[in-house]
Write a structure and sequence with these properties.
The protein has 2 helices and 6 strands. Strands 1, 2, 3, 4, 5 and 6 form a 6-stranded mixed beta sheet that branches. The radius of gyration is 16 Å and the shape is elongated.
């Protein structure tokens, strides 16, 4: 595996915070879970839920919109338009010094899903993946 800004995967990692300026209470926990899963799947570090960690990840959602976009061609499900801007930052767990920042990650898509929450989950997953890709290719 290629190293990332977190090193070669032996360091501990946790979420510092997920800042979500929206009125959707389910968005922050959803993003936390996606970040956790991506870090583990990519073996970027050893995840810890609390206590000390070598690195802390900060996820800031600066923009999020989701809306009913109309019915699918078949007329059997509702299409949802979703857009989000996210910034992922990495902090040193002992000094709280900013080590790396993804810059703005923007994405807008239309989803044929069961609802706004499912559309947001798919969009969040893609944004986190793009952020983790940037983290890996930051050298």
């Amino acid at each position: 595996d290629e190293p990332s800004v977190l090193g070669s995967g032996e360091k501990t990692v946790k979420i510092k915070r997920v800042e979500n300026p929206t009125l959707y209470p389910w968005l922050s926990p959803q993003i936390r879970t996606i970040v956790h899963d991506e870090v583990n799947y990519r073996k970027l570090g050893r995840w810890v839920d609390s206590g000390e960690a070598d690195y802390e990840l900060d996820v800031e959602v600066t923009r999020f919109r989701v809306s009913d976009h109309g019915y699918s061609r078949e007329g059997t499900s509702v299409m949802y338009s979703a857009s989000m801007t996210m910034i992922i930052s990495v902090y040193d767990g002992s000094t709280n010094k900013l080590i790396w920042n993804s810059g703005r990650i923007d994405l807008s898509r239309v989803y044929d899903t069961d609802g706004a929450q499912a559309a947001a989950q798919e969009l969040s997953r893609e944004l986190v993946r793009r952020g983790m890709d940037r983290m890996r290719f930051a050298f």
